[in-house]
Amino acid sequence: MQSDEQLYELSAKELAESPRQGLLIKCMANSDGDENRGKALYIKTRVEEMKEEIREGLRKQQAEEKEAMKKAMKEAEEKSEVFTRAEIGIYTFAVGFILIIFIMIAFN
Prior knowledge:
With 108 residues, the protein is mainly α. It has one domain. The protein has 4 helices and no strands.
């Protein structure tokens, strides 16, 4: 994630070059027409919006990665490339049983 400082720089540049007019007017109105306070409020508001956009992007990316993982696991299961829980249980039991037999033979 970008640092706060970078987000403040981006929002200040946006304000100087091409501010969102509706937001700028809202911020001026909320600062009782004080231009400096209005600009500061614009920057603060935009930084918070950008942070939320970044968070939402991360949530979306994580959801997409999770869905891709589920799809890959399902495809692997269909191709019998992964073991099911039941198969893992059977193999674990078999290995344990074989180990017990070897231990009994070794100590007799």
